[in-house]
Amino acid sequence: MVYLASCKSEKSRIEEQPDAPGKGTITISADESFKPIVDELVKVYESNNYGTKINVQYKPEADCIKDLWNDSIRMIISTIALTNGESRKLSDSLKVSVDQLPVARDAIAVIRHPGAKETEFDMNDIKAILAGTYSQSLIPVFDGVKATSSVRFIVDSVMKGAKLTNRAVAAQTSDSVINYVAKNPDAIGFVGVSWIGNPNDDQQSSFLKKVKICRLKSTDSTGNYILPVQANLYGRLYPMTRDLTYIVKEKYRGLGTGFAQLMATEIGQLIFKRAYLMPGRRYYVIRPIQLNEDSI
Fold first, then answer.
1. Which residues of 79-110 are buried (b: 16+ CB within 10 A; e: fewer)?
2. pTM for this one?
3. What is the mean pLDDT of each run of 10 residues along the chain (296 residues)?
4. Domains in the chain: boundaries
5. How buried is 215 (Cβ within 10 angstroms: 0-12 exposed, 13-18 middle, 19+ buried)?
6. Which of the four CATH numbers 3.40.50.1240, 3.40.190.10, 3.50.50.60, 3.40.50.300 does domain 2-105+242-279 have?
């Protein structure tokens, strides 16, 4: 009888909550750089949980971080990870449980006009381009007029305090960067690889016809110039690699927790894989192989 009473109490408690993993509506914030993949994740979650609705506000990463202190936003998706101190402060201030996890590995792709001849760079070249001291007068173009994750990575991890050239252009969105580069031979764009990495996506396939993806010098000792493909992201061989992380803040096990769990499950990881990001919650073994052209 005690067991049945406790089960009934638990069931009643869940029913009284405004949302749960299988019901309700929530609003989350996501960095605009990851719109294609987040849209797909939401589509799959809602189709598997008919009583749910996840409203996504796409914003620059800096605004997503501000939303951590907004009671109406239950979750953010970006490349930011909280320190233990920041997580405790957020939890104590809002009286919520804070959970975060890196779920995939992304990269910043460098793109150029399809007619551009120079499409291989090392990181010294990239820094010189961004500073305006490169041998060619190229125009850097970023995704967003405010601090997106791509801009923050460029400023913090590439420039490291050095000043950006005054010629740098901030386009409104990632697809605006692609269109700008497609029309300007002297432009060089920086966008999340999830916007152009999937040749099986109709929109991204159309983007790949407009621009050319550049190769960057590998971080290992080979000196090879490589593309931001999954195998190169896995070992961080591609130099502009970053992790995609979710941060959930809830007072109970709600819809935000359910959506976060999807990202870490096999279904969510498969969605990342098909979007040509590197799944972050699975282990892989990369083996060198040699193809014999005569046998192909």
1. bbebeeebbeebeeebebebbbbbbbbbbbbb
2. 0.82
3. 55 74 95 90 96 94 92 93 94 94 94 94 96 93 76 88 88 87 94 77 72 94 91 92 95 95 94 89 69 59
4. 2-105+242-279, 107-234
5. middle
6. 3.40.190.10
